[in-house]
Amino acid sequence: MSEKTISLDLTTEKLYKKAKEEKIETVWDRKKIMKAPCGFGEKGICCRLCSMGPCRISPVKGKGAQKGICGATADVIVARNFARMVAGGAAAHSDHGRDIVHTLYMADKDGNYKVKDEEKLRKIANELEIQTENRDIYDVAREVAEMLLNEFGKPFGTLEFIERAPESRKKIWKELNIEPRAIDREIATIMHSTHMGCTGDAESLINMSMRTALSDGWGGSMIGTDISDVLFGTPVPRETEANLGVLKDNMVNIVLHGHEPTLSEMIVLAAEDPELVELAKSVGAEGINLVGMCCTANEVTMRHGVKIAGNFLQQELAVLTGAVEAVIVDVQCIMPSLVTLSECFHTKFITTSPKARIKGATHLEFEEENALESAKNIVREAIENYKNRQREKVFIPQEKNHATVGYSVESIKNQLTRVMNSNVDNSNPIKPLADCITSGVLRGAAGIVGCNNPKVKQDYGHIEMIKKLIANDVIVVTTGCSAQAAAKAGLMSKDARKLAGEGLRRVCELVDIPPVLHMGSCVDISRILNLVSDVSKYLNVDISKLPVVGAAPEWMSEKAVSIGTYVVSTGIDTWLGVVPPVTGSEEVVDILTNRMEDMVGAKFYIEQDPIKAAEQMLQRIEEKREKLGI
Ligand code: SF4
Ligand code: WCC
Ligand code: FE2
């Protein structure tokens, strides 16, 4: 990769140059030192599950070790490694979900955490057959929380929220025996079955992976999203800005990075506290400028319009601006390199979660029982650091773009209902969306999600793919770092309509939306599942038959493997732009990219060129339309 092309994003290029000049190490430098990745690891044929090994299977058929010492074949080793990635990803999302429900359990009308969206809580309670009439909303909240906490470890039955899926989907899951039971149970089952001397059959391992991944998408993640909405409000469309240009020269800059809104919501409140704003002024700043990074950014921008500093590969670059007083993190996607990097500047790198302590960071544990006070202490730490900013080291690139964000399923439906009210039929808010798809005004819909990865030129995979799709009248919904790439590139501005095809442009004008909708953080992919299910039920066709596709063009984390697997298991074809470590097994590749279609009606596609991938997606969409006769 040439040094000139690490990113599509100009701010990244500029700050990378600064890093080079100042001899400060970044993720791209470490990638270079790593040289070529280990061929065994890359193909998934290295096993270190027991101490008879580690064993590596020769990638050449018939030459060298073809089996592990226990006799495990490449197929088994690759499938076990894949399954463990799914388990890791599902664990991360679901444990996040669990924490949010714990917060709901302790919510109190006089406390820091309150029920903000009572209507959504009532709806969920009804769904769970919990009495709501004549009851204090906090009693209802506690009962809902208790029931959802049981979803993680209940001994019998299957997950409650899979009932939201269309009947045709549930039937497929039942027949394949991949209806997820309790969330922790699915993760534990994978860890058990992949232990030395357990499952020795690739197909069975992929089946288990599907069930575990479904317990993430339709379980942990869906719970995380729903209860975050209950506690902090269901997002509605609002305006924001994205990219490192949102940092301010004359303000206390705080970067919020990580995932769980329990922390970030309190930091948002703390940063608005008049006493702390005064304190910021007393140290010579004009005020406090709170900005977000990765999924935390998505959570707070969707609910408060907090500006987006950047996505995964920009976390180091934010520090490199020299203008950040504190990076406050909780869990997931946080590079430990931030410790040494912040030492080159005045930046305080503050960890807050016992689940993600990082040696060398300032650890200020966030106490939920004392949430606001705790958040204020953390913000105070940032403010007091303003005086240490070394002006000569500051460089803030000016690039940023405007974006409209906040498209929860509820707000999409609202927006559609508004349009419908001016029409005749206002029976179902899904109708106009379904009509646009069946009439062909929109050819289909695509969910583009996932990370950045230094193997890919930053944002290139996301942006090229999205542009190609919208130009061909495919509406795009996004989450995670993909959403941030789109926001930075201006694709979430209503202005971006001009890049859309004729049909999509008309829809955007009529409904007053951008062609690319920000649906939230990575756990919020569950919003996409709910939306697609609604369309499937309305049209009475299974999800796998809809002209809907998914992609993770620059994925890197285990969470993305879990996401991809549950999206495919839900019946949506999914394109991966980074090759997963499975190519050492013909059988596993065949299951993922071929046989899964017979099982769940969808499969994985692996295509590193985002434009080619988009062409395949468009082709697949047209095939589905033809089969539906639309
Ligand atoms: Fe080797 Fe089998 Fe042990 Fe894996 S489980 S390290 S393949 S002996
Ligand atoms: Ni979700 Fe990927 Fe971003 Fe992390 S925040 S880097 S998993 S997309
Ligand atoms: Fe995330």
UniProtKB/TrEMBL annotation:
Needed cofactors: [4Fe-4S] cluster
A Pfam entry, by short name: Prismane
E.C. numbers: 1.2.7.4
CDD domains (UniProt xref): CODH (cd01915)
InterPro entries: CO_DH_a-bundle (IPR016101), CODH (IPR010047), HCP/CODH (IPR004137), Prismane-like_a/b-sand (IPR016099), Prismane-like_sf (IPR011254)
Chain residues that bind [4Fe-4S] cluster 2: 47, 50, 55, 70
Positions that bind [4Fe-4S] cluster 1: 38, 46
Catalytic activity line of the entry: CO + 2 oxidized [2Fe-2S]-[ferredoxin] + H2O = 2 reduced [2Fe-2S]-[ferredoxin] + CO2 + 2 H(+)
Chain positions recorded as [Ni-4Fe-4S] cluster binding sites: 259, 295, 333, 451, 481, 522
Gene Ontology MF term list: 4 iron, 4 sulfur cluster binding; anaerobic carbon-monoxide dehydrogenase activity; hydroxylamine reductase activity; nickel cation binding; peroxidase activity
GO biological process: generation of precursor metabolites and energy; response to hydrogen peroxide
Keyword annotations: 4Fe-4S, Iron, Iron-sulfur, Metal-binding, Nickel, Oxidoreductase
Subunit structure: Homodimer.
Family affiliation: Belongs to the Ni-containing carbon monoxide dehydrogenase family.
NCBIfam families in alphabetical order: CO_DH_cata
Name of protein: Carbon monoxide dehydrogenase
Top-level taxonomy: Bacteria, Bacillati, Bacillota, Tissierellia, Tissierellales
